[in-house]
Amino acid sequence: MNRNGNSILSLLLIVFILVCVAASLTAVLIAVQRPVVVIVQSPPAPATVASQAATVAPTALPAAAPDNTVIAGRLANLPAVGEVDDPAWASVNVLSLDLLPQQTAPPMLDSPTVPRLRIQAAHDGRRIAWRLAWSASQPATQVETSTFTDAVAIQFPLVDGAPFTMGAKGKPVAVLHWKALWQTDLDQGFQDVHKLYPNAHGDLYWFAQGGWPYPIREAFKDPMSRNWLVGVAAGNPMSMLDRVQPVEELVAEGFGSSTTVPRSPSAARGRWRDGEWVVVIDRPLEADDSLAVCLTPGKRSQIAFAVWDGHAGNVASRKHYIGWVPFKVEP
After folding, report:
1. What SS3 class is residue 267?
2. What is the pLDDT of residues 199-255, one digit of tens each?
């Protein structure tokens, strides 16, 4: 082959290498980019809970029909939070709303396993409470790598226009989150390794007292022993040994931003019986925090709900939900 032929081949080889490099760089850039979800707001359908699924966008939804309004009526005496079956709840209206599968942010819920949530709300001028009930053939009250807990949450916008999708930057929401796992911790004692794995054995826990199964409250009184429980030492709410309430209060400004609020004034109690969870979440009306503004008697606001079915693998954003519906606290 002559010199000119070699030059052409070399040029073609260089061009081929440059094209391959450019293609590789493009693939890398595409791979590292965060996915962009474009959601188009459709015209509002007839005012039903199901119509909210059509407009899962980072904006507040239009107000639902009046019959979907959650109204906290006034009672002379609000039942104690622990009395989830107090006869006084029989006089409070029940609002039953359809639950939708969360299919906006991963991990998503492919299909719902809990069809609806029954909601009651009431206050006595000092405290406000929500009584929530949903079907669950068996309770899910433990967690490990493939096991999750039943749970329910209530969400409120802390500013006008906050989206129900966990808020947005500069538009925070508040969440009251009850977990069946935490309820069991309170009712039966903190669930440690031996609750999930009764045949497991541990020879030694540094600075712990006694022997296997090293009951948490008795064996880990020494602060040095708790340093070896990394979740406890890090302050992880899931690892709290001395839990006093089964409900957590959080604030969020978008997906993945949920942050625990310490020293929450909220209380809760849940019980499972005959294939149904009933949970009461209770809060003082005049708490010294931003959420109290949403609970002022006579004020109209919005409220949203979420339910997790632990046996169906619900965890994190894999959940059932009800978007914003009107909420009113009667004077």
Report:
1. strand
2. 888 888 889 999 888 888 889 989 999 888 888 888 888 888 888 999 999 999 999
Angle 111-136-252 (CA atoms, 0-180°, nearest 5)? 65
Catalogue the E-assigned strands of the chain. Answer: 70-74, 95-98, 100-101, 116-123, 127-135, 151-157, 173-179, 247-252, 259-260, 267-273, 276-284, 300-308, 320-329
Q: What is d(CA 232, CA 208) in angstroms, rounded to the nearest whole number?
A: 14
Distance from C-alpha of 154 to C-alpha of 171, rounded to nearest angstrom = 17
For 34, 127, 214, 235, the CA distances from 243, given in Å and listed in that order, are 38, 22, 18, 12
At residue 157 the predicted structure's pLDDT band, cuts being 50, 70 and 90, is very high
Strand extents, DSSP E, 75-115: 95-98, 100-101
The letter for the amino acid at 290 is S
Least confident segment among 18-27, 33-42, 142-151: 33-42
